[in-house]
Structures are given as C-alpha cells and as structure tokens.
Amino acid sequence: MLHDLALEGHGVRLVPLDPAHAEALAGFVDARLWAGMSSALPVGVDGCRAEIDAARRAPGRLALAALDAATGEVRGSTSFYDWEPRVPRVEIGHTYFAPRWWGTANNPACKLLMLEHAFETWGCARVALRADTRNARSVAAITRLGATPEGVLRNHRLAPDGTRGDTAYFSVLPEEWPAVRAGLRERLGG
User: Fold this and answer.
1) Residues of the domain holding 79
2) Where does the N-acetyltransferase domain start and stop, copy by copy (predicted)?
C-alpha cells in the first residue's frame, strides 16, 4: 500500500520503498540472501522493480527501504504487514539486508524504530515476527531482538520451488515492550 511513513534514528532511515531503490537492491539480492523468502528470487533491476511493485500493492503492507542515515546508501528493505489497525496488531517482516550489514547494528536499529512506532504511535496490542525455520540466520536475529517464541506452524510456508516449510512465530506484547526496548537500546550503545 502506498504510504508516507518515514522513521529515523540510530544511523538508519526508513522510507517508503520506491522503484528508485531497485538498482541498489539488485546490486546485492542473490539466492543466499533470498533463502527462506516465500516469493521468487527477484533477478536484476527489473526483478527488484517487480518485487517493489508487488510490495507497494499489497494491502496492509507498508514496505520500507532501509537507508544509511548519513550517506543515503540502500541497506535493504523491511515491512510492516498484516496491519490491522482496529485490532490493533501488525507483523514485521519481508526483511532483507545487504550481507555487509548482517551482524551489525543495522537490524536492531530498524526493528527498534519499527517497534517504537508500532507500540508508541499505533498503540499495538501485538507485534509478530516470523521466519522459515530453515532460515537459521533470521530465526537467530529475531531471537536476539528479545521477541518471545510462540511456536512453529508446521507445513505453513510454500517456497517458490514448491517445497513446503515450517514457520517459527515470535511476538512482542505491550508488557514485554519496555524490556525489549531496553535490550535493543543496550545493543545500540545506550
């Protein structure tokens, strides 16, 4: 869905994902990075443009480009999705970053900005995150955020190659948010 949400802090700027980001994303999106995603690998600039277009058209999804706040370099993308304002709940996912940003403060910074917005602006009663159980890197990253594991939905995912996979679900609730926020701030150096 088209939106104007922008968030900034901790060296990261999150802005609406736009076709202008396709060329930068195409520079690092590959099969290793895309492993565990439920859509087909976007190949080249045209593939990234198509992926961006699909993200922008998806109802209840606010797709964001993650940029270096100082240089404007495109680090990757992440989204709010399955947003239900009347409930209120949202999921955070469709996340991918250039490998050079893996294991850095980038993901915790993006998630802190997004969780702050979800809880402190939207007043969410639940924020969920999920990953294919075969994607150990993503499952570990979600665990390090401080989200509570809820379990595994078996045979829940359909990969582009037709194989089925399990989905690990995590969530953060309002009463857990202060501790999660403190943990993320500590990881970001206070």
Assistant:
1) 7-187
2) 13-148
